[in-house]
Every structure is written in C-alpha cells, then in structure tokens.
Amino acid sequence: MNENNSNDKKHFVLVHGFGHGAWCWYKLVNLLKQNNRHRVTALDLAGCGVHPSQLHQISSFSDYARPLMDFLSALPDDERVVLVGHSYGGISISVAAETFPGKVSLAVFFVKRTSDESSFMDCEFVFDPEFGDLPISAALRVDDMADTVYSHCQLEDVELAKMLLRPSLLFAKDLSNPGLLSQERYGKIKRCYVICEEDDVSSVEFQRQNIAENPPDVVVSIAEAGHMVMLTRPQELCHCLLDWSSSHRADMGIYFGAQPLGTSFGHEVKEVKEIKGADHMPMFTQPDALASSRLPRNMAECGTKASKYSIKQKVHLVLVHGACHGAWCWYKVKPLLEAAGHHATALDLAASGIDSRKLHELRGVADYTRPLLELLAEVSEKVVLVGHSLGGINLGLAMEMYPKKIVAAVFLTAFVPDIVHRPSYVLEQYNERTPAEEWLDTKFLQCGTSEEPLTSMFFGPQFVSNKLYNLSSPEDVALANMLLRPSSLFIEDLSKKGEFTKEGYGSVKRVFIVCGQDKAIPVNFQRWQIETIGVDKVMEIETADHMAMLSQPHKLCQCLLEIAECYA
C-alpha cells in the first residue's frame, strides 16, 4: 500500500471493550496519526471512560452504543470507515455494521471474551432478581488484572487502568435476540480477526474456535500479545490495520492446519492464505521522548531505578492533579513511588477524571476539593501532599483544614496561596500577567448562576500540545485529548473566601518544584511566587514541561523521594 497516496487515507474508528474507554487506544492513535496519514476517532461508549452517563442511566444496549451510532449517523453518506472493536467492543461494531453497512468498509475484531464462567474470574458481578441467574453488570477486579487482562503490559499501563476502569453493563437480555445481525447487512461487511497468542483472558484455542464458527476474511496471529494488544503490541497492530485496510487484502481467507476455510458468512473467499506471526513486521520509529518516559516492565527493576535512597520510613504521598485533568496524569509516577517503598494515592477531584459529578453541579471550590478533604478526614497517618498546577489551591484548602495531618505540601509548578490575601489573589495575578492570546484555543464559558457565578475552562488541542505537553510524548498528548474534562479556576468563589491563617495553612512546610520548560505557568511566574509568598524549600527540574509527571517522571520521583526522606 502506498501510504503517501491521499486516496489511501483511511478513517479508523476505535471501539473499546468491557469497562474501558477511548483512553486504552492512546498508543495506537498516535501511531495511526503519524505524519497525518490517517484520521482516527476513539470514542467513549456510554458510561465508559469520561463519558458523563452513569450506570443507572443506561437502560439498554442501544443506550450504551449510542455514542458510536450517533457518530456513524453524522458521517457523510459517501464516507466509509474502518471499525475496530476490542473484546466486548466486537459486539458494538457488529451492531454498528448491521445498522450502517454502507458506511463501513471493514470491521476488525480481536480477543473476544469467552462465555464460560472461568473467563470472568477477574470480574465482580451485580445480579438482579428480575433476570434470574444472568448478571446485569460487572467490574474488573483491579488487584488481579495485572496477571489476566493486563498481563504483558507495562506497569504504568496497569496503573492507568486502575485509575480509569469503570463498571459496565452486560446486556445479556438485549443481546440474546437471534435476529440482531443479518447476512444481508452485517454479513456483507469484510471482516478481519486478530489472534493474541499470549491472551490470559481468552485462550488461543477459544479464539480459533470463534474464527472457525464464523470465518472472517483474514486473520493474523500476533506473537507475545496479551489481551490488551493495543498496549502490549501497538506497532504490530498498527501495521496490521494499515495493511488490512488496503484493497489487496479484501478477498483473503484464512486457515489453520491442513483444512482451509473457504467461505465467510455465506460468501466465497477468492484466496485462502494463512498469516502467522507479526514479529517480522517493521517497527515504527518512535520519538526519543517515548523511550525516555517509559517505565521498566519488571517491578524489581523499577524499584532499583526509583530508589536511589534507602527509605527511613514509609510515607503516604497524596497526588493532586490540576485543572481539566484527573488522577490518571500520575500514572507514571505513582508506581515509581510505590516501588521505592512508599504509599501513594492519586485521586480524582470532583467532576474530574472518572468522578461522576459534573462541573455545573459543583457549588464552588469546596465541592471541587471534597474528595481530597474526605481522604484527609479518614487517614490516620500524616501525609505529604503533592499538588500540580491548580492543585496548589486545593492543597491550600486542605492545609487550612487539616494542618496536623500534613507533614509537608509540595507545589509542583503550582499556584501557591498566601496568608495575606484572599485565596483568589495568586490566580488573579496570573491572569493579569497572561495575555488572552496565550490561552490559544482554550474555551471559557459562563455556567453558573447570578448568585453563584462559575466560569468553566476547557483546554483545546493547541494549548495542550504547545503549552502543557510541549516536551511530553505524543502518546501522552493523545491520552490527554481523550481524558480532559471541563474545569474552572473558581476565582469567583475564591474571591469571597477569607485569608488562610498562619495557624492553619501557614503552619505546614511548603516545597516548590520549579519546572524549567513550563510554557503554561512560566518560570518567571513560578519564581515570583517563591520570592513573594515564600516557601521552605525549592527544587528544580530544568528539563520538565508543565506536565512534569509525564515528561520527567523519574526526575520528579527522585524529588519526591528526597522530600519524603527529609520530612518523614
């Protein structure tokens, strides 16, 4: 296939599996988009990823699949896409192909779940008496998934999943309809299947059984690929998708052993050929930033690299994200801290990450900070708080309320309140020094009431790439664009609050970590805060952009280990 030919430009639509979201495709999205060769859409089905619907609001499979159906419905009549479904997502793309056969050029399936009980040992079920023995929903057990669903994955991807997985409905009653798919519509779509040879959820034997019972047009077996092939073998999967979507694969069949399968859903296959193994496929060249920011696969190796110091005492570090982000942005740093022997907690603030609340439901910054305040109310030990960017304001509220539970507060290129002005002061100073054009494509909207005004803020792709993630990997840029949610600076609410006190906020030790290549909160503003407001200790990561936890996770981890040792 000539990938430089504009006529070969494809539109791939990636549909996640059970409990996941668009985020699980972040590596593949980056590869498919390289050099702007192809258009890629990864979307959240209802109640998944950061989609706003909650489980109780989804009454049917139609509700669940509506984001995909609405997307396909809105496409021009002459546009055809390649649907890619992972695991349970295979059902979604099958129904989509049945509904919009004229808009689907190819359907790609991989690693379907088995229906026997043993294949769901990594799940916890919810039953409803109305459905008898059929479970209505399930959730992956995060403690077990490193050995099952996420076997062969890097530690950071396991951590990312723990932060983002959500319970999902099974729709057993809806999907029991034998007329769900027809030969006249779904049966006319070209279909491809990926076998993952190291899948610990669906055995290779079961995958081959599925293929034998309903032969696709082409199959490939990817060596050393676990269930989450898009995370364990993204380059090989990308190569397969690009190869399959070209016309010369359209009439290719498959076989295993000596018995060829010459038909596929009722139509004859012109050519029968086995494609075995992906280890011969050329690897895509990745930017240097990817290699530098990857974590070791082995936990022992991870611990050795992270722990430059032998820790005197185990410390609990609480990691607080900034505006529009969530706990997920700490997915590289958290396992490093834990490998070094500490306890780390990354949480979603209200209306952030996969928290169920919506921004317009919050009555102010106290509601936004509530998950952090509730955590501190429950912990028995003292903690080190780490706040990134706007998270510095959340630290301020927590320090004022629970000063005796916080041994130190770390401001990572963050806004630092003082005890002289109202909490909004530092944000007002930042806004005064930041020209409107510096916000690029960030969107601001009024979403509060006259009594409780609230300005929402949502970072656009240009602001993300150029201001926040300027030294971060393209993978992490793709991840952010899938997971960011509208947030607010809460200036209106903060301007009405009283000053923090010396006895509360002022009694906690403060450490500031300067990020030398930050284009969102520039170094001169970071140092203005240090000089004007004052902190007890200053550290610097010269090569970090605004998202230091992603662009320089190891260096940030070393800073936090030093702080933990100093204040333990």
Automatic annotation (TrEMBL):
SUPFAM superfamilies: alpha/beta-Hydrolases. GO terms for molecular function: methyl indole-3-acetate esterase activity; methyl jasmonate esterase activity; methyl salicylate esterase activity. Residues 12-237, 317-556 form the AB hydrolase-1 domain. Transmembrane segments: none annotated. GO terms for biological process: jasmonic acid metabolic process; salicylic acid metabolic process. Gene3D superfamilies: alpha/beta hydrolase (3.40.50.1820). Keywords: Hydrolase. This is Methyl esterase 1.
